[in-house]
From TrEMBL:
Belongs to the ABC transporter superfamily. Gene3D superfamilies: P-loop containing nucleotide triphosphate hydrolases. GO terms for molecular function: ATP binding; ATP hydrolysis activity. SUPFAM superfamilies: P-loop containing nucleoside triphosphate hydrolases. This is ABC transporter ATPase. The keyword ATP-binding applies. InterPro entries: AAA+_ATPase (IPR003593), ABC_transporter-like_ATP-bd (IPR003439), Metal_Ion_Import_ABC (IPR050153), P-loop_NTPase (IPR027417).
Length: 263
């Protein structure tokens, strides 16, 4: 599904990524974790065929970046960005339908086919948004927008879903609704692969299968979550003692307690 070999990204003489090797297979759901400046967004841009590496190889859905029309390739990717630039008061249904053509605004000269509308309605229902299908975008909460954008990203039936900090700015209820939706989606589409970028372990769905830890543009660890999401490796990644616990499939992270100074 995705493969990088020896990938470097250099900007103005500075390494944003160095020597990244990664393989993602169908049905795997990866968490991409690391502190600010770790290179998470840079790597996601490579995986989404938005940018190219300085050195190394990036294969997306079996196509080598630099040897393929990235516009055609992006049609098979679903990219969820909570900073979606829409400003007009489109309804949720209209926003989801724009995912079919990968546009921001609807095509005023082309009416969507009935089967396209049916798929939009199905995805809206899957993401728990049926009651808000006619609600204007400008009135939605951040969490409601996040679920609408996931439905939009799924319109072209992508093989790969990329989620760039989808829980940013969400309150507790909105975050849990979003994560429940992702778990349901992954269950319903077992061949779908996904990569979710976050700073916070609490924002990872139960269905997460693998993790890649980045620090300073370099890989700290990568592999199944049971092996990678450990107190030792997370502490190394974030450069601070952090205790990791997992309960009913979800993670929590707490900084190691500091001892009060003796008097």
């Amino acid at each position: 599904m995705l493969r990088t070999r020896g990938v470097d990204v250099v900007r103005d003489g500075r390494y944003l990524l160095r020597g990244i090797d990664l393989t993602i297979r169908p049905g795997e759901h990866w968490a991409l974790l690391g502190p600010n400046g770790a290179g998470k967004s840079t790597l996601l841009a490579l995986l989404g065929a938005v940018s190219h590496p300085t050195r190394g190889e990036v294969d997306v859905l079996g196509r080598r970046l630099g040897r393929v029309d990235v516009r055609e390739l992006r049609a098979h990717l679903g990219h969820v960005d909570p900073r979606h630039p829409l400003r007009s008061p489109l309804s949720v249904r209209e926003v989801v339908l724009t995912g079919h053509a990968g546009t921001i605004e609807p095509d005023l000269y082309r009416k969507p086919a009935p089967e396209t509308v049916d798929r939009a309605e199905l995805l809206i229902a899957t993401l728990g948004m049926t009651a808000l299908a006619d609600a204007p975008w400008t009135t939605l909460s951040q969490g409601e927008r996040g679920r609408a954008l996931i439905a939009r990203a799924l319109m072209p039936s992508p093989r790969l879903l990329l989620l760039d900090e989808p829980a940013t700015g969400l309150d507790l209820t909105a975050r849990e609704l979003l994560l429940d939706s992702l778990d349901l989606l992954r269950h319903q589409h077992p061949e779908l692969a996904s990569v979710l970028v976050t700073h916070h372990l609490e924002e990872l769905p139960e269905s997460t299968t693998h993790a890649l830890l980045l620090r300073g543009g370099e890989r700290v660890a990568a592999g199944p979550v049971e092996r990678v999401m450990t107190t030792e490796l997370i502490s190394e990644t974030f450069g601070h003692p952090i205790r990791i616990t997992r309960h009913e499939g979800r993670w929590t992270a707490r900084a190691a307690a500091r001892r009060a100074p003796e008097r």
